[in-house]
Specification:
mainly beta; 122 residues; seven-stranded mixed beta sheet
Length: 122
């Protein structure tokens, strides 16, 4: 069973950057596609980005295309989310997820990290 721990959140001004990391334990990390989601107060959890198990395919929510980049290092059992040109509306708790990526679509699984808070001030 894979366990996930996010880090890298914090407070940043609009236009700034952050890089989130999601470290996975367990030998089966490379078998999973990985996704990033966020949840703002009072709102449902939403998809942000995903990457296939080998890293060759990625998918992004329209709201972050061109600003966020998802990547992974299977040797380090870690997936990253580079967030540039941050906006106040990006403020949320960010979660990583282990799931499946097939035919250009990401399907979330039941394995979630505890989340990391990102706050973007205007």
């Amino acid at each position: 069973q894979v366990q996930l721990v996010e880090s890298g959140g914090g407070l940043v001004q609009a236009g700034g950057s952050l890089r989130l990391s999601c470290a996975a334990s367990g030998r089966t990390f490379s078998r999973y596609a990985m996704g990033w989601f966020h949840q703002a107060p009072g709102k449902e959890r939403e998809f942000v980005a995903a990457i296939s198990w080998g890293g060759g395919s990625t998918k992004y929510a329209d709201s972050v295309k061109g600003r966020f980049t998802v990547s992974r290092d299977n040797a380090k059992n870690t997936v990253y989310l580079q967030m540039n040109s941050l906006k106040p509306e990006d403020t949320a708790v960010y979660y990583c997820n282990a799931g499946n990526y097939y035919s250009g679509s990401y399907s979330s699984g039941n394995i979630w990290g505890q989340g990391t808070q990102v706050t973007v001030s205007s």
